[in-house]
Every structure is written in structure tokens, then in C-alpha cells.
């Protein structure tokens, strides 16, 4: 599927491909049902100088994307995962081809979700020259508001995973600073 360009998607893809980020994102997704797209949206807002989301803005973003995420993204993810290890009676080569097509559809659905997120709260760049620490703090504050609205409780291993993601998303951020910001979410 051809999509119009968007800086959120470009940012998400570039960060997600960095060493260890996909695994850390999937850890948080598996342990807490974190919407990785929403988390990447929060990181992008901070990274791009668009500031932190308020609690009301987090709720608005979640309301805008929740149905799509639950009914489309998660449903495609379920089908993809089921095809991996289930239905042995179907020929494996055909099953794997179908799984690849479902995976491509899942990625397209996530791409569309990012358009939904970006449209839910439009922000202009307000702090373009802010230090990396301030932009990372804005990103962490938005993620913190998101996880609190979900009544999630981060543990030390979650903080380590989020610190890794934060450190990769904000090159030049000191590891201790990333960990401090991540531990603030516990």
C-alpha cells in the first residue's frame, strides 16, 4: 500500500530498526499490552520539539485510535501469530505465504494507526532548539501519562526496556538520564 509521507512514520521506522528497540518494544507490548504506535507517537512529539501531551490529550489520542488498534491491528496480529504455529493441517508453504501477506497487512494497519494518532492531536514545533534532555523528558512525560491512564505499573525490567528505547530515540542522551526518566514511570 502506498502512503503519503509523514515524519511520525519516518521517525518510528528509524527508531524501531535500531539495535534492541524492537525487542524492548515487544517486551512492553507483551507484558503490559502497550500500544507501541502510541508510545512511538509520544517519543516523536518530544523528539521533534512538540512538547509533552497533557492527560486530556493522551485520553483524546487513545480515544481516536483505540477502536482501530483493537479491532484491526490486534486482530491481524492474532491471525499472524496463529498462522505461525497453528493449523498444521494446512500446507506449511502456503500457510507461510498467507502469514507474510497478513504481516504486510498488519504493518499497513499500524501505518494507518499512526495517521490516526497524528491527526488526533496536531502540534507544531514549539521548542525546536531545546536540549535533548528536555525533549526526552517531554517524551517520557507523555508515555508516563499514557501508562497511568491504563493503570499500568512498570517494574525495573520495564524501566530498563523503556530506557533502552529512550536512549536510542534520543541519540546523545546519557544512559543514566534515560534510566532516571524511565524509572520515573515506575
Shape: globular
Strand content: under 5%
> How many beta-strand segments?
0
Gap from first CA to last CA: 39 Å
- Poorly predicted regions are none
Structural class: mainly alpha
Q: How would you describe this structure to a colleague?
A:
The protein has 186 residues and is mainly α. The chain is built from 8 helices and no strands. The protein has one domain. It has helices at residues 7-16, 21-32, 36-47, 55-85, 92-120, 132-149, 156-169, 175-183. Helix 4 crosses helix 6 (132-149) and helix 6 (132-149) runs parallel beside helix 8 (175-183). It is globular. The mean pLDDT is 92.
Question: Quick summary of this structure?
Answer:
The chain is mainly alpha-helical. It is 73% helix and 0% strand.
Question: Any descriptors?
Answer:
186 residues, mainly alpha, 8 helices, 73% helix, globular
SSE diagram, text form:
Layout: H1 7-16, H2 21-32, H3 36-47, H4 55-85, H5 92-120, H6 132-149, H7 156-169, H8 175-183
